[in-house]
Amino acid sequence: MDIDLARAWAQAMAAAVEVHKDHLTQLDSAIGDADHGVNMHRGFSAVLSALAGLRPDTVGDVLDTTGLTFVSSVGGASGPLYGGAFRAMGAVLDTALADPGRFAVALAAGLASIRKLGAATPGDKTMIDAFAPAVTAFGQQADGGGDFATAALAAADAAEEGMRATVLMRARKGRASYLGARSVGHQDPGATSTALVFRALADTAVAR
Ligand code: ADP
Ligand code: MG
Fold first, then answer.
1. How many structural domains is the chain composed of?
2. Residue from 65, 70, 64, 38 nearest 50 by CA
3. For residue 39, what is the enclosing H or E element?
4. Which of 20, 36, 188 to mutate to test the pocket of ligand 1 (most atoms within 8 A of CB)?
5. Contact of 43 with 21, CB cutoff 8 Å
6. What is the CATH number of the domain that holds 93?
7. Is pLDDT above 90 for 75?
8. Mind listing the pLDDT tens digit for each residue in 10-60?
């Protein structure tokens, strides 16, 4: 991961959210308040503007700006959760170039930030159910000597599998938890946007 790849990742996330905005909102209308697509779109639109004026020295600069912008522009639960995760990743990536092992550490820091702030654990039907398997898959590939694109592809596949698994879960955190057993049978919106985040990373890395 270098500065150009970090920028390209942010642009790919923004593009994916633009395409899937209505789907994310539709998922949130079933078990939340129908704003997840709008929240993510507002956040990434603001991120693109912020990054356009940034002259980063490190990968961390790109991710820290992404996170700060997210926190300040998104009102829903997902704003501080994603924003904090990008900032935590940025803090680890205070270099112009990061190898897959270092990026795996950054992803783990991002996940830890989400878990700390939201106090959710795997199985609670949140973005964590896509994020955690993605971090594990990326780390396994990195440990095995896989290159960045291979690790990112494994992470994207794991995130999508985790996303699909949220359908059968009962929500224990966030607005969806108010529905209790009625949340079962619906895919979690935040796990769905997390799958987009990791697919965007894989697409960006493979296109290199
Ligand atoms: P809000 O719930 O405030 O309307 P969004 O609709 O933007 O915010 O985001 C909802 C998503 O946020 C959920 O689908 C879930 O994945 C995630 N989420 C909510 N609460 C938590 C939490 N405590 N920990 C982790 N993720 C959470
Ligand atoms: Mg919502």
1. 1
2. 65
3. helix 36-52
4. 36
5. no
6. 1.25.40.340
7. no
8. 999 999 999 999 999 999 999 999 999 999 999 999 999 999 999 999 999
Ligand found nearest the CA of 188: 1
| Lookup result for tokens 């994020």 | 131
5 within ligand 1 shell (Cβ under 6 A) = no
Is the CB of residue 122 less than 8 Å from the CB of residue 98?
Answer: no
* Ligand 1 proximity of 190 Cβ (cutoff 6 Å): yes
Compute the residue count for the chain: 208
The parent domain of residue 85 ranges over 3-207
Name the residue of 38, 42, 71, 81 whose CB sits within 8 Å of the most ligand 1 atoms, as the mutation to test its pocket. Answer: 81
Residues bordering ligand 2, an ion, CB closer than 5 Å: 28, 32-33, 35-36, 76
